[in-house]
From TrEMBL:
Cofactor(s) in the UniProt record: Ca(2+)
Stretch forming the signal peptide: 1-25
Organism: Belliella marina
Protein name: Beta-galactosidase
Gene3D superfamilies with a match to the protein in the record: 2.70.98.10, Galactose-binding domain-like (2.60.120.260), Glycosidases (3.20.20.80), Immunoglobulins (2.60.40.10)
UniProt domain Glycoside hydrolase family 2 catalytic: residue ranges: 303-519
Protein EC: 3.2.1.23
InterPro entries in UniProt: Bact_Beta-galactosidase, Beta-gal/glucu_dom_sf, Gal_mutarotase_sf_dom, Galactose-bd-like_sf, GH, GH-type_carb-bd, Glyco_hydro_2, Glyco_hydro_2_AS
């Protein structure tokens, strides 16, 4: 993290903590009855009505969910749908109690009991007396005036009854019959606020980009003899504006002024200021003070045009985020909130939707500091709160969150969970009148000029942008169950969104797999089968392939160059996709590299030269060129890296290109300096045996496949049963042997799509396979050849190509380097979340090393465009996993399939609906490729080893 962001974090953390700890003087003082977060808890007495550990008093940590503390029973919200039958929900009631003594300096103060969040119906008694009506709704801050219920001189008793299921069915339908984990308990902090009798009860700030500032105040016990002093300061404490306003006895007051020369807040430059409001009495005595970080920014929707922040049209590179952690459910802390925000920023995102409820306060503080646009959502998964309860919850949500500059939208529920009678209530508590949206998947629910329809395909996306007068901003798209969706298809979607006038961007579903550590089944992680593994990250924020692909696709520095041209002159076209940043403010660095070779003990590359590159003056939305002035290392290097660093010191992305990565290989491959250089070929009725370079290859004449690899001083290598073409049947039509200068080759001709395979062993021991196939015009998912090899023997793979994550045709991003992955059997979205996945398609391969229990074997391709498939895997699970795989275990392919999602035409996972990159590979005609193999079989330790240099510059 950059120094600037570290500094902002320290400031954000200090200010957040200052609101939740006891402070002296005339600020609001706080006394915690619970802990402050999921890692800093307090022990209460607890009784659970049913389920595990029920029927007797014990203890529990607060805040927490009682399921994660070993009580009650679990429900995934819509279990009754998942299992296709009537299901009785776990509906325990939890009873909490503890004693406490009020601090002495609270005497004479107005006392307010605050719950930041409790699931679901919550009833409270202090010293045996009910302090008010039960609160209904899980994710909202609610308060009680307890001044008259507290014993100031002796110990007090608080008792809390929490009912998991609400007595209000609309609350259950909005929050608990949902597609996410549901819990019970006091899961956010509980504390007492102590304020002077004369105090500022509430303030709502309107801070516009031009410096105009309004503060709407609610005052208690204040008269016209009092006044308010407002002070605006920089975060370093320097005062830039201060003014006084007379109070009145109405209890409401609006103060206004203009602050000159401010720096506006946006996601790229999240400039913040400190606002202090002081209530003054006689003799200028300070009676009460409140402080708030504010950002000056203006939000406007121009219908038929776009979303504007500070007069600049912006598009949301957004994602949905559940407030969730595997061990503690929805009980979190500021460090977890920070981690999630930094991961979103790393993916070059600028916005987040708080699906499907308001987040922790600390999350919003950090969005303010680090720069994320927030869509703050009222609960309501696919059913809405009734109007009576909804009005209460809108008020609680907006009054808590109104002063965060990061919040630019309010969302009135999700996918049918919108009660339209509540639309006007947001403005009652938000004087800045942020836009309200309806996050939906049903036609006709657009609102305020924005259509948020979920899960459109590419064709319908084109139609919306062509025909609609509404701004289209899907609040969910490209559903990322397993490895599908997410960034698979995102390139085509985002390029269309970026180019379309009526696009407001959108929000991917979803940030992280919602995998829960189940305390009732030995702390195993449960994703409720296919319901919850929907993330671009794993439950503990393990980065999946879509994470890195989204980072490149969403990069605000857009590089168009796919491969370096032979006449590369140092110019690289670039587009500025920032909204507020000139590329002159971005730093660019170039590195010339040589790649590690097969046989090197480590992977990666060696930098042989690096320098900074002059940043081009390119305004937002415009194109220009990055110019590398010095190309003297171009002929020596094997690759080039270009890194972009934003104005805050954070890496945006690093692009990579190969130059001539195999230029030294073929000198070694064609070398004759080997004592075992004799070549021999015999063909019988059933077998053909080719020997040279210390190897013997045996072929089955009946099907024309390699059946045995032998080395006199070692064991057999089980690589064989190939080449098998990935489409159709093949039959041997002829076998020929040819001799060229003492070198013998075996040529096998076939009927079928595979036409010919020519095998040659060079004196160096390298085996050359030239193959030719012919395909009639058509669409093919994975054209190429396959071999068998026992997966159980494999230890690791190392390669020069894209990586380290597997790719799909429509998610083919990756860094060119020498990558190495240890074997694992990870299927994306399920335990053990061991990434990168070992198995899959890997692209742009120059060479690959497979390390096995029998030794290592290598493959090299001089021709570009080789994809290697490793073993059996799937992209999206279902009744049958998708997409289908080619024959064999290891495949060498000239094309690979794209990946859809579970929502792409149902279970067919049809990727073509997500855009051109999702379409099948179009093939027509004759194709050839040459592969070079080396089989480094484990040798008998009693025999001398072959010391041949198999690779250039081998260590």
């Amino acid at each position: 993290m950059s120094y600037r962001n570290t500094l902002k974090l320290l400031i954000a953390s200090f200010l957040f903590l200052s609101t939740i700890t006891t402070s002296q003087g005339q600020h609001t003082e706080q006394f915690f009855l619970s802990g402050t977060d999921n890692e800093n808890t307090e022990t209460w007495e607890f009784f659970c009505s049913s389920g595990r550990n029920s029927g007797f008093w014990s203890t529990i940590e607060v805040p927490s969910h009682w399921e994660q503390q070993g009580f009650g029973a679990y429900n995934y919200g819509r279990d009754y749908v998942t299992y296709g039958r009537s299901h009785e929900f776990a509906d325990e009631t939890g009873f909490y109690k503890r004693t406490f003594t009020i601090p002495q300096n609270f005497k004479g103060k107005s006392l307010e009991l605050v719950f930041e969040g409790s699931m679901t119906d919550t009833e409270v008694k202090i010293n045996g007396q009910s302090i008010g009506p039960a609160h209904q709704g899980s994710f909202y801050r609610f308060t009680y005036d307890i001044t008259d219920f507290i014993n100031l001189e002796k110990e007090n008793l608080i008792e809390v009854k929490v009912s998991k299921m609400s007595s209000n069915n609309s609350v259950n339908r909005a929050e608990r019959y949902a597609d996410y984990w549901i819990f019970g308990g006091i899961f956010r902090p509980v504390y007492i606020n102590a304020k002077p009798q004369q105090h500022i009860a509430h303030h709502a700030v309107v801070a516009e980009a031009d410096g105009n500032l309004e503060v709407h105040l609610e005052l208690e016990n204040v008269t016209e003899n009092h006044e308010i002093i407002a002070t605006v300061s920089e975060l370093n404490g320097k005062t830039i504006k201060e003014w006084k306003t007379k109070a009145n006895s109405s209890g409401e007051l609006v103060i206004k002024n203009k602050v000159e020369n401010i720096k506006a807040w946006n996601s790229e430059f999240p400039n913040l200021y400190q606002l202090k409001l002081s209530l003054k009495g006689k003799g200028n005595k300070t009676l009460h003070e409140v402080e708030e970080r504010i950002g000056f920014r203006t939000i406007k929707i121009i219908e038929g045009d776009g979303i504007y922040v500070n007069g600049v049209k912006v598009k949301m590179k957004g994602i949905n985020r559940h407030a969730f952690w595997p061990e503690t459910g929805r009980s979190l802390n500021a460090s977890l909130d920070l981690m999630d925000i930094l991961l979103m920023k790393e993916m070059n995102m600028n916005s987040v939707r708080t699906a499907h409820y308001p987040p922790d306060k600390s999350f919003l503080h950090l969005c303010d500091s680090l720069g994320l646009y927030v869509m703050d959502e009222l609960g309501g998964w696919q059913n809405a709160y009734d109007t009576e309860s909804g009005k209460i919850l809108v008020r609680e949500m907006v009054r808590r969150d109104v002063n965060h500059p990061s919040i630019i939208f309010w969302s009135n529920g999700n996918e049918g969970g919108t009660n339209k009678a509540l639309d006007g209530d947001f403005d009652l508590y938000d004087p800045s009148k942020r836009p309200v949206v309806h996050a939906h998947h049903r036609p006709g629910n657009d609102f305020n000029g924005i259509d948020t329809d979920h899960y459109e395909n590419y064709a319908s996306l084109l139609k919306k942008f062509a025909d609609s007068t509404l701004i289209y901003m899907p609040t969910e798209f490209l559903h990322a169950q397993d490895d599908g969706g997410g960034a698979a298809g995102l390139h085509d979607f985002w390029e269309l969104m970026w180019a379309s006038k009526m696009s407001g961007g959108g929000y991917l579903w979803v940030f992280a797999d919602e995998g829960l550590v189940r305390t009732d089944i030995g702390n195993k992680i449960d994703v409720n089968r296919v319901n919850a593994p929907d993330g671009l990250l794993g439950p503990h924020r393990q980065k999946e392939g879509s994470f890195y692909a989204a980072r490149e696709i969403f990069s605000p520095v857009k590089i168009f160059l796919d491969k370096l041209p032979e006449d590369f002159n140092g110019e690289i076209e670039v587009e500025n996709r920032f909204h507020f940043t000139n590329l002159s403010e971005v730093n660019f660095e170039i590195a010339w590299v040589k790649y590690r070779k097969p046989g090197d003990p480590i992977s990666g590359h060696v930098v042989i030269g690096q320098s900074e590159v002059e940043s081009p003056n390119v305004k937002p939305g415009e194109k220009g060129k990055i110019k590398i002035p010095d190309l003297k290392l171009h002929s020596e290097a094997e690759g080039i890296y270009l890194k972009a660093i934003d104005p805050h010191g954070n890496e945006i992305y690093t692009w990579s290109w190969k130059i001539n990565a195999l230029k030294d290989f073929f000198e070694v491959i064609n070398s004759s300096k080997n004592e075992n250089n004799a070549s021999d070929l015999t063909v019988s009725d059933s077998l053909s045996v080719l020997s040279a370079g210390g190897f013997t290859l045996t072929f089955d004449n009946a099907n024309g496949t390699l059946s045995r690899i032998q080395k006199p001083s070692g064991m057999d290598l089980s690589f064989g049963n190939g080449p098998i073409f990935t489409y159709g049947a093949q039959r041997v039509s002829n076998i020929e042997k040819i001799e060229d200068g003492g070198s013998r080759s075996l040529i096998i001709k076939y009927d079928g799509h595979l036409k010919e395979a020519k095998w040659t062993i060079h004196p160096s021991g390298w085996v050359e396979l030239n193959y030719t196939y012919n395909l009639p015009e058509g669409e093919y998912a994975y054209p190429g050849i396959s071999f068998d090899y026992p997966e159980s023997n494999v230890i690791s793979a190392k390669w020069l190509g894209k990586g380290p994550y597997r790719i799909w045709k429509n998610r083919n991003q990756g860094t060119i380097d020498v990558h190495q992955n240890l074997y694992n059997d990870t299927h994306t979205g399920s335990t053990p979340w061991d990434y990168p996945e070992f198995k899959g398609y890997f692209g742009d391969i120059s060479w690959m090393e497979i390390n096995t229990a029998q030794g290592k074997f290598y493959v090299v391709s001089e021709k570009e465009g080789l994809n290697v498939r490793l073993f059996d895997f799937y992209g999206v699970s279902g009744p049958s996993s998708h997409p289908e795989l080619p024959k064999g275990d290891i495949s060498f392919l000239d094309g690979i399939p794209a990946l859809g999602s579970k929502l792409a035409l149902g279970i067919t996972s049809n990727a073509a609906v997500y855009g051109p990159q999702g379409e099948m590979n179009t093939m027509d005609g004759t194709y050839t490729r040459t592969l070079y193999f080396y089989f480094d079989i484990i040798q008998d330790p009693t025999l001398s080893h072959d010391k041949t240099n198999r690779f250039p510059n081998e260590n």
